[in-house]
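Open question from group meeting: does this chain pack into something compact, or does most of it stay loose? Before anyone orders reagents, we agreed to write out a predicted structure and look at it together. Recording both the input and the output here so the notebook holds the full record.
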Amino acid sequence: MFKRLGRLGLAALTLATAPLLADDDAPQARERWHQAIDQRYGVLVDASERLEASADRFCEQPDTSHRRRLTQDWLEAYQAWQAVRFVDFGPIEQQSRAWQLQFWPDRKNLVGRKMQAWLAADQPPSAEQIADGSVAAQGFPALEYLLFDDAMQDDEALTHPVACGLMRAIANHLADGTSALRRDWQRFGDHYRHTASYTGATLHGALLALETLEDKRLGSPMGLTGGAPNGYLAEAWRSGRSIRLIEGTLHGLEDTFLPGLKTLLARRGEAALADDFREALDRTRRRAAKMSSGLAPALDDGAAFSELQGLHVQIGQLRHQLEEIGGTLGLARGFNASDGD
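Structure tokens returned:
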């Protein structure tokens, strides 16, 4: 998951953004951000509830059409999480909620090991048992294991009572957890809107999202940050949906982060910077949307790898643009989103 800003990092950011935080347009930007994030959390809740219903339908009538619908609902809910993943402050920090939604990176295959242990049990777990257990068995990657792992491709593997009960418990936990997250975000609203430091924290979250995309979600599996290319380092490698998740993150930044950013820049007479960033963000998202969904297969395909490199470059350019925008808004030049603990 995204690294949270430590106390020293947040203090440094607050000091660096003093001119911005004193500006009258910052509360307006936070108001827009709060509303947009609330709407995005609402999309996540709705998608998670559809996923829960799909899991129930499949287990009651496990046919091809219900499995196809279940797979699509899993992807849509996972993308809905990606779209609001840049919010790394507030209620999402409580109770390891981000890890509950997505345990990643998973270099030791903890998701696989935890799921195998649950599948070997005599009885499926309840949602309460899932909630009290490991975060590696609670979120979208755990469901991905059930839907896509090689061990689950036998026609009867997912329809086994233990496997289906496990899937329903995880889906139920996701639906309950996302609903509670949105309620807590709404209660968090007054504090967010009236606390100046959250302007910088929101900018930081977006910058860190781009940094993580560039360095970890693309660079690491592509072998661009040290070591050989390794598809197992990619998100959603079992399902081959890594690029679809990246597309979801870019869409969320465009739809949820950009409106508040434009408010900040417009009051400073710099609306053109927001327009330039929007155009670059849209180009990058559209490029990802046209690419094959999987990252790992592209590592052994010259043409596909070249497309990945192009996407990696464009995301790096987006990151640089947002760093420049941060300087315009009062962030110290050279601010690094990975500062902190």
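Observations to bring back to the group:
The CA atoms of residues 42 and 151 lie 34 Å apart.
The longest helix spans residues 25-60.
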